[in-house]
Amino acid sequence: MNVKTELITFNTGMALENGHKLDSFELMVESYGKLNKTKTNAILVCHAFSGNHHASGKNKVNEIGWWDEIIGPNKSIDTNKYYVVCCNNLGGCSGSSGPKSINPSSNKPYGSNFPLVTVSDWVNSQKMLMEKLDIPYWHFVVGGSLGGMQALQWSIAYPDKIKKAGIFAAAAKSSTQNIAMNEVARESIRKDHNFHDGNYLEHGVIPKNGIKTARMLGHITYLSEQHMNQRFGRKFQDDSSKVGLDVDFEVENYLQYKGEKFSEIFDANTYILMTKAMDGYDAASKSDDLSSALKGVLAELLIIGFYSDWLYPPERGKEIQIAAMNNNIKSSYVVLNGEHGHDSFLFHSDKYSQIISKFIES
Amino acid sequence: MNVKTELITFNTGMALENGHKLDSFELMVESYGKLNKTKTNAILVCHAFSGNHHASGKNKVNEIGWWDEIIGPNKSIDTNKYYVVCCNNLGGCSGSSGPKSINPSSNKPYGSNFPLVTVSDWVNSQKMLMEKLDIPYWHFVVGGSLGGMQALQWSIAYPDKIKKAGIFAAAAKSSTQNIAMNEVARESIRKDHNFHDGNYLEHGVIPKNGIKTARMLGHITYLSEQHMNQRFGRKFQDDSSKVGLDVDFEVENYLQYKGEKFSEIFDANTYILMTKAMDGYDAASKSDDLSSALKGVLAELLIIGFYSDWLYPPERGKEIQIAAMNNNIKSSYVVLNGEHGHDSFLFHSDKYSQIISKFIES
């Protein structure tokens, strides 16, 4: 597989939705496969809240890409046939410009001064990336969760630059409960003693505890209740492998472990920025309703939900499907079993993978 | 209404389930109405996680009791007819012995050294209270959520001391997801900079931020998603009444406000202790299964669930009902609409109130 990882600079800068102007910015980009001569085989993969540009294969430090079960040679998104592009979103913490970057006006990390970006801003930056890569249009823009919101927004914002969109485990807007959960996560970060109003890097510390708590909560919302019951039930953690003194149950140990790991790699300001973008997205915010918002869409849509997903349950996909039908948009809506709750979109299953590859080829 | 609020001391002490012995302890007790001459009209009301002894009417500082919609003259639990007793659970923070109490062996607050108590311990202490009050048996033991667990445990532990049990919005054991959510709440408290391993009182501080985050999360789990959607939707908070700079949506403001209020009155060690008791309870822990556990039950059961409750959904009540039926226990299981999610058990509705009063009178 032809893999290319590069940091691309956009010196022209970009006007953000909130009125702020970024004078210049960088995107960390990874691509797989090759653009064909007719330039008709480009696919944009959009990452979810805590993802990054590394979607497939192993990178230099042997980490497997977050969507490796779906993207690769002879996989659903077949890198033998398609040129697949994935970038770390603006505001991220995996190489693209974000709160960890140096603010040229102060020569210090942006911290909490990095502007709040939106799903629309990401789509606009990805449009600039498309042009930079000399791609005339995307054959397919796809993502799960927050990535699905970007795919939907692409179909709305640039109808003639996208042939097909894949919107998986996503919604046209976050629910009240989604926002509420994210606010708890943000609260735990902001109130970490080491947060320093977001300028922790200047103080040489990171708000690890806050990020850990936030992730533990997030993790619960990504899994299905049934899956947790089956995997952990009410089993007690054996003493020898307890990560904390206060741990009684296996599920506590698991969450502690996962939260701790995540807190070592993820940036707190990015956590806040990404959840704010997720909460703030409403595909219909500039229209009367979702049907009106989708009026100009030309792309064919594939909407996939999972029964066990309680974060963005299947009903949220159905809302998009109904709005698509109201506009005579060619659209397919499928609900799959998926054992892994919201995270189901990350994993291969024969049905899921086949639906994706057939849709791309159709 | 005849109301009595008193602190009762138990000098004989009590052996706890975990092997620890409390040499003496105190319970803060409130009662309504009068014990009749035949001593057949006593009702024990057990409080949920953050409740206390003050269940009905207004207290000295004008606070309305947590179950005032259900308990009072001519209400479902009619204090004109019944002698209703409610105590702050052992380990609580409203007057009963708990982490805030002075440890006689150190002359400092117990803090995190207060022993972890269990639902069984509470039931045992309430049995001692019953004897102290010269009550031969309870006509009815009732509670919602963690209070319902105590009512269930009463029917198992002291079958000849309880005629009827009311188990509302409860379960015979917490689910994996319940435990997971509580662990996130505990984590936010333990990692508060002011927690000091639970000995914050000695340091003259309280881990307010941790309690606040914990309560914000808890609050989400007590409300139904639909109720939150209807009440808050995606409405933005107007600037003039924002409680924090980072607040965008009304639901954020609401949770911030509720969390803040709670953090000013509730004790962090009690939060940990109560959630540990909730997580740890399993009515069948000493039996093969729930049916075996209920074998000796003599009380008549009233099990009520609420469709909108996703913390202890109706299925959890059904498990108790099935186990009761397997033992030919006289038992009624009802699922009501209840708009308020898990919290529905707290509120009056004509149907709910009528079911309770008919059951008590039957």
Q: How would you describe this structure to a colleague?
A:
The structure is a homodimer of 362-residue chains. Chain A has 362 residues and is an alpha/beta fold. Chain A has two domains: 3-173 and 281-361, Alpha/Beta hydrolase fold, catalytic domain (Rossmann fold); 178-276, Rna Polymerase Sigma Factor, Chain: A, CATH 1.10.1740.110. Chain A contains ten helices and 14 strands. In chain A, strands 1-4-8-5-11-12-13-14 form an eight-stranded mixed beta sheet, with helices on both faces. A two-stranded antiparallel sheet of chain A has the order 2-3. In chain A, strand 13 (300-306), helix 9 and strand 14 (331-336) form a beta-alpha-beta unit. In chain A, helix 1 crosses helix 2 (146-157), helix 3 (176-190) runs antiparallel to helix 4 and helix 3 packs antiparallel against helix 7. Chain A is globular, with a radius of gyration of 20 Å. The two termini of chain A are 23 Å apart. The mean pLDDT of chain A is 97.
